[in-house]
Specification:
By secondary structure, the chain is of the alpha/beta class. It has one domain: Vaccinia Virus protein VP39 (Rossmann fold). The protein is built from eight helices and seven strands. The longest helix has 11 residues. The chain is globular and about 45 Å long. 38% of the residues are buried.
Length: 209
């Protein structure tokens, strides 16, 4: 298990990695586009929030797939937000950015129909459980939380290496989603590079009691 990471740790990490992120992450951040296409087959959201929006790759795709939606991208890294701002400039006020940690609900009474976590939750340690509770509060009735992320690896050396890159992958994300009172509507786990690690795609909504 990796040691708990602070917001300052991640800001420092992405101060450098923001410049190489798009050129390198495609080799192991699988399923991002497929997640958006999966949502599009089920939902037509009018308000979308992406937590940990990074350089804005998903924001651009979300804006194209859902042309009527207003989209908010949130990230705690100023360097990542700067990259994202250039990508989404052509969408005008329909896509807005916020540089801040997701430490509580941000909807301000206007809940989101879709909340996206793309390779974000495994980097929040501690705090991913509180983040999911905040997302549940930000979610509109009938809305969807969409997640694609690392799941787990049976190789201790790989888990240690990922821990050095601020990623914890011990299967904690699915357990935390269920613990937050979210009902999994779809869940698919796939292997990468012959089983070096597994990654998960899931859609969830509020658990009705």
């Amino acid at each position: 298990m990796s040691r708990p990471r602070t917001a300052s740790d991640l800001q420092g990490y992405y101060q450098w990695h923001a410049h190489i992120y798009d050129a390198t992450r495609w080799t192991f951040l699988f399923g991002r586009g497929a997640l958006i296409r999966m949502v599009a087959g089920r939902l037509r959201p009018l308000r979308i929030l992406e937590i940990g929006c990074g350089t804005g790759k998903n924001l651009v795709e979300l804006a194209r797939v859902f042309p009527e939606a207003r989209i908010v991208g949130l990230d705690l890294s100023a360097d990542m937000i700067a990259k994202a701002r250039k990508k989404v400039a052509g969408f005008g006020e329909r896509v807005s950015l916020s540089e801040r940690p997701y430490d509580g609900p941000v909807s301000g009474g206007e809940p989101f129909d879709l909340i996206v976590f793309s390779y974000c939750l495994t980097m929040i340690n501690p705090g991913y459980d509180q983040v999911l509770l905040a997302a549940k509060e930000d979610l509109s009735p009938g809305g969807c939380i969409a997640v694609v992320d690392f799941h787990e690896s049976g190789l201790s050396w790989f888990r240690r290496w990922m821990g050095m890159n601020h990623v914890r992958m011990e299967g904690q994300v699915l357990a935390a989603m269920q613990g937050a009172g979210l009902q999994l509507q779809h869940c698919e786990i796939r292997s990468a590079y012959g089983g070096v690690w597994r990654w998960v795609t899931c859609l969830a909504g509020r658990l009705e009691r």
